[in-house]
Amino acid sequence: MNRYRAMIGVGGIGAGTFFAVSGNATIGREESRGGHFLHRRDYCKLHIISHYVKALAGPEFAVVPVGKVGDDDVGRRLLDEMGDVGLDLRYVETSPGNSTLFSFCFVYPDGSGGNLTTDDSACSKVDPEFVARAQGEFERFRGAGIALAAPEVPLPAREALIRMGTRYGFFRAASFTSEEIPWAVESGILQEVDLLAINRDEAGAVLGGESAGDLGKVVSDALAKLREMNSKLMVTVTAGAGGSWSWDGSELRHVPACKVEPVSTAGAGDAHLAGVLVGLAEGMPLAEAHRLGASVAGMSVTSPHTIDKRIDRESLGN
Fold first, then answer.
1. Contact 107, 52 (CB under 8 A)
2. Which of the four pLDDT bands, split at 50, 70 and 90, describes residue 137?
3. Gap between the Cα atoms of 58 and 128, Å rounded
4. Residue 24 is assigned to a structural domain of this protein
5. Helix axes 286-300 and 268-281, enclosed angle (nearest 10)
């Protein structure tokens, strides 16, 4: 019997494209540079996590994303894809006059790169009042749900979802970008979070930007600081080829990265968090859920797309 029966989440719903740049030199302000588009589909955080949770947890587990897409072809395509996997889309609204969140990702030949993301998309219109529309779902799954607050929507909306999760006895999971970590630390919101999912750079942000040096020390020092804010906080830290860590309140564990030939690591952290949440929903201790998350992330990097639609319970078992 599952420990939790539903996940209600807020975060980015959008798409993107990948462009391979010619040459490793950093693009200059007024430079023109050639390249070509890559055959990769990019998705945003709430969509990625929700997809994997639904694909792995099965039809009896409700996944309720809360967010907005634009009234455009991209938004309509995303809604179709989200519906195909069985997500409950009653709280995903088409926002007239706004475009769907979109990211242009550029990749240098050495594998490094960056991205440009729209900051005036439909996702930027998600606010606490919009999140409050899902209150009935929190009541419906009182004490038996997961509240997920993911990036790419404004912080007030994510704070509202976490606090609603507190009110209705939900397990509260959250992640923050490196730029948002100072707010999370100073606002006190981490006192209302049960699981914080971050990567190496975000762990460094907890320490004031100190992400260089021994990876294990960065993780352990960040955990020490986080425990000062919330002694019951569980934490996962992903570090690509360096593997991942989990802290369950008493023990720090490391799981090596899966030995696979990676095609693209984009979205792997979100895949990892989805696997962890499914494990916790099914009653696993964090150490076991952590291993499941590492397996989902390991399989996800063998796909060029940030959602690998091959992943389900059967394929993961193989």
1. no
2. very high
3. 29
4. no
5. 140
Q: How confident is the model at residue 211 (pLDDT cuts 50, 70, 90)?
A: low
- Does pLDDT of 134 surpass 80? yes
Do the Cβ atoms of 231 and 216 come closer than 8 Å?
A: no
Distance CA 126, CA 133 (A): 11
Residues 52-77: pLDDT tens digits?
999 999 999 999 999 999 999 999 99
pLDDT tens-digit series, residues 144-197: 999 999 999 999 999 999 999 999 999 999 999 999 999 999 999 999 999 999
Q: Which domain holds residue 69?
A: 6-13+45-92+119-308
Residue 19 maps to a domain: no
Q: Is the dihedral of CA 173, 177, 178, 182 positive or negative?
A: negative
Give, in order, the Cα–Cα distances in Å from 199 to each of 111, 242, 277: 18, 11, 16
Is residue 107 in a domain?
Answer: no
Q: Please give the model's pTM, rounded to 2 decimal places.
A: 0.93
- Can you tell me which residue has the tokens 């005036």? 120
Number of domains in the chain: 1
Q: DSSP letter at 267?
A: T
Phi, psi of 77 (to 5 degrees): -65, -40
Identify the CATH number of the domain in which residue 225 sits.
3.40.1190.20
Using alpha carbons, list the distances in angstroms from residue 279 to 235, 254, 292, 294, 296.
14, 17, 7, 11, 11
